[in-house]
């Protein structure tokens, strides 16, 4: 076939079909490679390997393009909100009026968590890592709502709309509960108000004083969550697909995704950026020390919030958030010295050959913390905020796995580099 890929191996020439995506991306279909040749493909970190065909998000890292179900992230950021974008990502179309009202109602109706789940919070030390608490409490949802977590795709998909709404809404409520617990504050109960308003109420209302909702704050929170809603096959989303491929229910698969997101190279970067900016501020440094350390190449010294596994261009989300920082701070009548430091750091890095040569640009995490801090969200919760935002993407990807009649369990192979066959030695004869 003219469009096939030819592999010459051990004197044989074998053709493999080319798969072309809806945006023209090309893939070599190697699903028969091992059966045909006994060889496997080796691609550490899967940077050149497609694990699935997905219709949710298109990402062009070279040109800094991000679209959800065909809609550019710039248009969604400008005109949509988190719940509407979550609906689009999960169901594939922008909701009509009726659908928008219905998803909003379902989210409000399922915002509370089982009061017995509050005892799980009590089982943690107050200073426990928020992402550790979040993954445990989300995982417990499979026990509290077993009828929605049967580990039988047909049964679980039959209740998908409710399960998805519960997951998004309760993850938001649990994050606020973690904040209240860590600060020794009484838990708040959800109200019959929109998603982001409810989050701010759950976080900051006090028994003696309701949180005063400010439209600019709600709008900024919508933007932050919307910009995190999905991002193709990133580490945590691929983890959700991997776990879901075993037949695991949505809650359990989401808990696994939260674990993956907690790593400093992934979702943990947003709080690491703020710690980096704060230490530059406290030391009166102009950032050159961090840039010099980052250029050393040591994984532990990386410029947090910079670089990306896919983008070799400016992360479009970072550009949107970077612009929003000034707008949000101005509207709230706030200033943040860390924003000026971040802008100087970005300018220095983008004029430094080390970063330019490696095509290292700001990613979504570089500026997001500035806005979250302006909204009063403490740094310790930044990665859990990422989890709230990413929940629709994880859910949509789990649904693709669960709905695929030809789906298979994810089971990558390896190149074994350990000891070859050897016989057991009795302990008395070992050196
Ligand atoms: C997210 O995948 C997604 O879509 C993720 C995400 C999403 O929405 O789900 O976008 C969210 O995780 C954003 C990334 C957040 N992480 C950080 O900001 C941490 C800092 N960034 C890096 O650790 C790094 O850029 C990664 C982990 C994001 C990407 O790593 P890669 O693709 O494995 O990059 P690499 O290790 O191949 O780096 C190539 C070169 C290396 O130098 P050389 O060996 O060629 O000399 O670039 C260097 C790296 O040392 N490099 C950096 C750097 N990132 C890469 N050097 C300094 N600072 C950095 N930030």
From TrEMBL:
The active site is at residues 308, 365. It catalyses: oxaloacetate + acetyl-CoA + H2O = citrate + CoA + H(+). One of its GO terms (cellular component) is cytoplasm. It holds the Pfam family Citrate_synt. GO terms for molecular function: citrate synthase activity. One of its GO terms (biological process) is tricarboxylic acid cycle. Signal peptide: none annotated. InterPro entries: Citrate_synth-like_lrg_a-sub, Citrate_synth-like_sm_a-sub, Citrate_synthase, Citrate_synthase_AS, Citrate_synthase_bac-typ, Citrate_synthase_sf, Citrate_synthase_typ-I. Pathway: Carbohydrate metabolism; tricarboxylic acid cycle; isocitrate from oxaloacetate: step 1/2. It comes from the Bacteria. PROSITE patterns: CITRATE_SYNTHASE (PS00480). Keywords: Acyltransferase, Transferase, Tricarboxylic acid cycle. PANTHER family: CITRATE SYNTHASE. Belongs to the citrate synthase family. This is Citrate synthase. The gene is gltA2.
């Amino acid at each position: 076939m003219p469009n096939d890929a030819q592999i010459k191996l051990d004197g044989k020439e074998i053709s493999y079909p080319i798969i072309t995506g809806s945006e023209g991306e090309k893939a070599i279909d190697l699903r028969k490679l091992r059966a045909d040749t006994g060889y496997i493909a080796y691609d550490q970190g899967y940077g050149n390997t497609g694990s699935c065909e997905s219709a949710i998000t298109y990402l062009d890292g070279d040109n800094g393009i991000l679209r959800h179900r065909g809609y550019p992230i710039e248009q969604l950021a400008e005109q949509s909100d988190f719940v509407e974008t979550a609906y689009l990502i999960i169901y594939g179309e922008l909701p009509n009026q009726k659908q928008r009202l219905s998803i909003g109602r379902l989210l409000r109706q399922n915002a509370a968590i089982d009061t017995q789940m509050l005892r799980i919070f009590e089982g943690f030390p107050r200073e426990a890592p928020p992402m550790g608490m979040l993954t445990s409490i989300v995982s417990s949802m499979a026990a509290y709502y077993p009828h929605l977590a049967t580990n039988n795709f047909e049964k679980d998909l039959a209740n998908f709309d409710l399960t998805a709404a519960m997951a998004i809404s309760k993850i938001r409520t649990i994050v606020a509960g973690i904040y209240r617990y860590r600060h020794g504050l009484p838990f708040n109960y959800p109200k019959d108000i929109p998603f982001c308003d409810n989050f701010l109420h759950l976080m900051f209302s006090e028994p003696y004083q309701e949180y005063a909702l400010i439209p600019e704050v709600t709008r900024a929170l919508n933007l932050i969550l919307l910009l995190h809603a999905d991002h193709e096959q990133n580490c945590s989303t691929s983890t959700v697909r991997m776990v879901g491929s075993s037949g695991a229910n949505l809650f359990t698969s989401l808990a696994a995704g939260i674990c993956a997101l907690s790593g400093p190279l992934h979702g943990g970067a947003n709080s690491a950026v703020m710690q980096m900016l704060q230490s530059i501020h406290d030391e009166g440094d102009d950032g050159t020390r961090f840039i010099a350390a980052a250029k050393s190449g040591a994984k532990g010294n990386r410029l947090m919030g910079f670089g990306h596994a896919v983008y070799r261009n400016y992360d479009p989300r970072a550009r949107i958030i970077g612009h929003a920082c000034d707008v949000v701070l101005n509207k709230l009548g706030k200033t943040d010295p860390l924003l000026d430091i971040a802008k100087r750091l970005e300018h220095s890095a983008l004029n430094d050959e080390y970063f330019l040569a490696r095509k290292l640009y700001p990613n979504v995490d570089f500026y997001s913390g500035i806005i979250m801090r302006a909204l009063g969200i403490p740094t310790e919760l930044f990665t859990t905020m990422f989890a709230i935002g990413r929940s629709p993407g994880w859910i949509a990807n789990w649904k693709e796995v669960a709905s695929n009649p030809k789906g298979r369990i994810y089971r990558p192979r390896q190149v074994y580099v350990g000891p070859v066959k050897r016989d057991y030695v009795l302990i008395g004869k070992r050196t």
